[in-house]
Amino acid sequence: MQTLLSQILSSSDSDTLWVADENSKPLLQAGLNFTGHLLSNRWDITHKALAQGIRAHFCDFDLSVAGSQYSRIIYPVSKEKAAVHHVINQAPTALRNQGELLLLGNKSSGIKTYAQKAAQRFGVEKQLQKHGNDYLSITRSTGTAEGVPLDDSDYPQLRQPEALAGLYSKPGLFGWNKVDTGSALLARHFGDFVTETKEVRAVDLGCGYGYLSSQLAGLLGNSTRLFIEATDNNAAALLACERNFLERGITGRVVAGDAGSEIEGSSADILICNPPFHQGFQVEGDLTDLFLTQAARILRAGRTALFVVNEFIPLGKKAQGLFQQAQLLEKTKGFCIYRLIK
Predict the structure, then answer these.
(1) pTM higher than 0.90
(2) Which intervals hold domain Methyltransferase small N-terminal (predicted)?
(3) Domains identified in the chain and CATH numbers
(4) Which of 119-133, 144-158, 220-234, 271-285 has the lowest mean pLDDT?
(5) I want to staple 186 with a disulfide (CB 3.0 to 4.6 A). Which of 34, 82, 246, 308 is the partner?
């Protein structure tokens, strides 16, 4: 899909909007020549685009943020159906008359179904082209009445799923409506490594909707001066985490960044982390390396980082050279809990 996407983007004009999620990152790394606007729900992609002189906007797939009507919207479809439906629903308003919505994906991405749904949303006939193993859907705005909006699970709205016991979350986050098993296992160890008698500065690296931060804050309560910096790369995660900090009275701040890139070095007494194991459709081992490197930079000397990873990730080995000690605390249910000491 990268070849097809690159060809389309390179031939697009300045009135084009590229809706970019993790599938688009390789093109930015290759220095793509693109003259239009980019909108992404990922901070790293937005930051990379801005550094290359591309007009870019970081948000949770809100097509109105860029403030324009476009001749073309290009969207390599995301892996989450609610996000794709949300983008398709907004497209008729964001496009000028005769503007085009281009959806790209391979067969396993659901692109054929999305092509049909886009046509229904616009009230036109489906157009789907096959390019090797990839497909391109082209849906043109006619300026006439639109079809019924698709079910996007009320994508923009924060809500409190029953399984989260009062925490806010939303579609756009992996596992948004449940407590991650690894995170729950990690939180059980917090009490062994924090005290109630001093100030504690904590960093929640890859915070998601803020489950780990909420568990840490609940453990310490009002008996200590706790300040938590929670950081994530995903716009939906930041919105949810900010709401949970506000609702639960957690003292701290929520920071956009790539694996903690915007957190000050040597600033944390304790660091907690459940790093993502999947980016897009692929497992990326170097993501763990990135999180470990940033954790070592952020943590104060002699202090503890608590990580949970899938058991197939050799975190203890990867931590060598970055931390003085890597202690396996628990191995259960396919996860390993580690204590790392800087």
Answers:
(1) yes
(2) 46-120
(3) 2-140 (3.40.50.150), 162-341 (3.40.50.150)
(4) 271-285
(5) 308
